[in-house]
Specification:
The protein has 204 residues and is mainly α. It is built from 10 helices and no strands. The chain has a single domain, classed as DhaL domain (Serine Threonine Protein Phosphatase 5, Tetratricopeptide repeat).
């Protein structure tokens, strides 16, 4: 798949609009088990991405992803800014404009490890990793209907954080009381996967 300037712009705009449109939902989720600012912070970060989208998409895919990550680190704040920034900056280190499914999987695997290191967290601790890890598994499989499978896997993975007890992040301070609530970072991650999968399908 060739991700040219137009595809990069559509990709960034689609992701940004999905996150911004869901800001209130993300804030409500975070109000239950966090600081209540996840949606506000993510909206601020992706509004900054939209404001710079022409400049970002003019660069090659790797540099544009690094730029997106840097923007999120600077604008999102809180715990999410550095984690999402790390995710996108790591993806930018290995992805070129021409991307195969295998290359995308390798890049996501490296990005997941970078996020683990940055957040001192792992899969099963009620974080964004609980979405990206199963999504990586689907990406490794490839094959027909990939976009639909990525979307359904991401949505289900976010839902699967509801019965988990938080081990990392602000929610971990609640202990058992974190059980019964969806992790807001998992939900925002699922929104991003959903948007990327839609764009992939459109440009495939």
């Amino acid at each position: 798949m060739m991700i040219d300037r137009q595809a990069r712009k559509v990709l960034f705009e689609t992701v940004a609009h999905r996150v911004i449109a869901s800001a209130d939902e993300l804030t409500d989720l975070d109000r239950a088990i966090g600081d209540g600012d996840h949606g506000i912070n993510m909206r601020r970060g992706f509004e900054a991405v939209l404001a710079a989208v022409d400049e970002l998409s003019a660069k090659d895919l790797g540099e544009s992803l690094k730029g997106l990550g840097t923007t999120l680190v600077m604008k999102v704040g809180g715990a999410s800014g550095p984690l999402y920034g790390t995710l996108f900056m790591s993806l930018g280190k290995s992805l070129k404009d021409e991307v195969t499914c295998e290359q995308a999987a390798d890049a996501l695997a490296a990005a997941i490890e970078a996020v683990k290191a940055r957040g001192k967290s792992d899969v099963g601790q009620k974080t964004m990793l609980d979405v990206f890890s199963p999504v990586l598994g689907v990406l490794r499989e490839g094959g027909a209907g990939l976009s639909a499978r990525l979307k359904s896997t991401a949505r289900a993975a976010a839902e699967n954080t509801i019965p988990m007890r938080a081990i990392r992040g602000r929610a971990s301070f609640l202990g058992e009381r974190s059980i019964g609530h969806m992790d807001p970072g998992a939900r925002s991650s699922a929104l991003i996967v959903d948007a990327v999968a839609d764009v992939m399908e459109g440009f495939a």
